[in-house]
Amino acid sequence: MSDEIKQLKLWTGNHYNEGIGRDDIFDKLREECGVFGVFNVPNASSLSYYGLHALQHRGEESAGICTVDTEDGNSFAYHRGMGLVKEVFDKERISSLKGDRSIGHVRYSTAGESKLANAQPLIFRYRDGDLAVATNGNIVNAPEIRKELESQGSIFQTSSDTEVIAHLIARSPKDFETAAKEALQRIIGGFAFLIMTNDKLLVASDPNGLRPLVMGKMGDGYVFSSESCAFESIGAEYLRDVQPGELLYFDENGMREDRYAEVERRATCAMEYIYFARPDSDINTINIHSARKRMGKQLAMESFVDADIVTGVPDSSISAAIGYAEQTGIPYELGLIKNKYTGRTFIQPSQELREQGVKMKLSAVRKVVEGKRVVMIDDSIVRGTTSRRIVNMLREAGATEVHVRITSPPFKNPCYYGIDTPDRKELIASSRTVEEIRDMINADSLTFLSNEGFIDSVGGNDGAYNRGMCLACFDNDYPTPVNEESDKSCSC
To answer: Cα separations (Å) of 421 from 27, 353, 389, 415?
Structure first.
């Protein structure tokens, strides 16, 4: 075993086989999930297919669509499968899902096994008919609720935390709308829910707005999505973001607005702006590409270094790299290229082959970086293994210096709201100084964006705490109660 691999094993808390190589050779943060809904628009399944395809970056493990056919007694039809949207659905499958309303889901999760039973939307039969649930996020107090429900006789079909809300609704003696509202008032966490019955669609966002959810208009109907980029793919008009604690009901009488919780603190996930959302999406009316460019510009003002070229780690850091280059006047170049055709995973039986797999997913452009002082822009450092690999890749391609600039503050704390993060002890910034991290990733210099610089770059509500963002992964200030011993993985 090489000295470098021994160091990688040490740095990842001895999670040598599972931490580095599990499902991905990179140690980047995992995407969460994505939801897409349609109400009162013909060919809802086709719209959901294209909408989910636009949200594919949020989850690549499974996909599913459930429709209601109003011309066939409001009957449910659904299909779920493991894999990408284009692998799960074909023309015949989509045409079999008839109706003018639907909810769909793309999933990445470690909360529950990777199996079809956990793919969403989750479908149930209860006393009032059919019930389908799709969500993005995590229910922090799901284990306690699940234990309570099981003691009362509930039998869970899946290991997904999302199922608890279905049981809370089904066990309530009250009508669906009241039962759903009371169920939402019981759960704690970050979530965006689409809940559908044979005659109603319910849309809800968590009381802090941690997970994004937007509403659009299409003809006489409505569409809903985790990100606004999906509306462009189907020609829908963006209306607004679903507000924290808001509850929307849709039925044959149209839309009704309600609330199930008041907003005590708006706290949209900072990593949506930094890493997860597509550059062409808007969250809380803020364009992601523009925000990331401002992060790059701010990073340049906070940590200028004399260099020959600026390059970004594809894909989420490209916008910030452009901003850094514009601010400094240093030319932006494509010094790193991502191979988009290696598939969702690249699991290999040995660490040596995994190391080779890095070069299959990412390549340095030798003629661009050779003999150059390079500023490498990236969005975050989690365990540090990826950053070291990329720095060394640039050096092997002939870069004389590699200066790493990160467009987020140091990632020190785990997320409990739907992002799959390592335990605190495995986060490199939780126990090491910036200089120690710089040495470990083999960079000539390393700087992170400041908390204040990040907040100012994104913008948002001037009067709100942290301008309406959750920075818990940086500052340990969680907007809800959390149990650090609980499962923090994405429940969707």
So the answer is: 9, 24, 20, 6
